[in-house]
Amino acid sequence: xxxxxxxxxxxxxxxxxxxxxxxxxxxxxxxxxxxxxxxxxxxxxxxxxxxxxxxxxxxxxxxxxxxxxxxxxxxxxxxxxxxxxxxxxxxxxxxxxxxxxxxxxxxxxxxxxxxxxxxxxxxxxxxxxxxxxxxxxxxxxxxxxxxxxxxxxxxxxxxxxxxxxxxxxxxxxxxxxxxxxxxxxxxxxxxxxxxxxxxxxxxxxxxxxxxxxxxxxxxxxxxxxxxxxxxxxxxxxxxxxxxxxxxxxxxxxxxxxxxxxxxxxxxxxxxxxxxxxxxxxxxxxxxxxxxxxxxxxxxxxx
Length: 302
Fold this sequence. Notes:
This protein has helices spanning 12-23, 54-64, 78-83, 85-106, 140-159, 179-189, 208-221, 239-250, 275-279, 291-301; strands at 2-7, 26-32, 45-48, 68-71, 111-117, 162-168, 170-172, 194-195, 202-203, 205-207, 225-231, 237-238, 257-258. By secondary structure, the protein is α/β, with parallel strands linked by helices. The strands form four sheets. Strands 3-2-1-4-5-6-11 form a seven-stranded parallel beta sheet, sandwiched between helices. It has a two-stranded parallel sheet with strand order 7-10. Helix 5 links the parallel strand 5 (111-117) and strand 6 (162-168). The longest helix has 22 residues, at 85-106. The radius of gyration is 19 Å and the shape is globular. The protein starts with a strand and ends with a helix.
């Protein structure tokens, strides 16, 4: 049985990733500092530690000799990065450097999937945005994701690590207690119908379960020579349309009230070119495939 090691294992996306790999008959090893979403039960084994700890990493790598590593451990908030950029750079760079150096020292053969972000593109001049488009972050979070990518390029080119960059666009799903879908649904279910933005901003949404299956596909089929791969639906969805679909799924008979305000660090338009992902054999997914079950889960949290 193939083995995957997943860092940031207590976070929102990690549980979905573990489930996708388990469905593909991989053994799943989770590594995390905390488990706020109680994801440990979704892994075959869960190791509580910080991946910035190189010595501990090396012992784990030698014990499990993973066929693939999915590196998720990092801060996940654009707005928090605006408030505390130094903490954000520490949270992105130190664990990543520690993990990459551990792989180099342990000298194991593995395929590393760095979970990066569409935030590295900033506000792209042309859509859909392909992986060869210029990178131009507009938030500390985006800049620090780019620093992770540069670290990967260093270890691929100089030290022979095998890895690639999965640039995740806008995801939603169970266990995510922040961002647009959670915020709009939670407020609407409580009788508050305001939504940030003009309504014309676009995002490329993908259900977390579909994103996780795409990451598994990348681990199995990518060349891992430092390349970037967009992970998205390839559909542009306006904030107005998103809010309308959330209201419908939540059974809320109201019209979204757009505030016209934009959050700092937020791009105006996103839509991914997903041709590289499709070329790896990952089937297309509609952006709304998991919306109803996500709304049902949000309702259960209130």
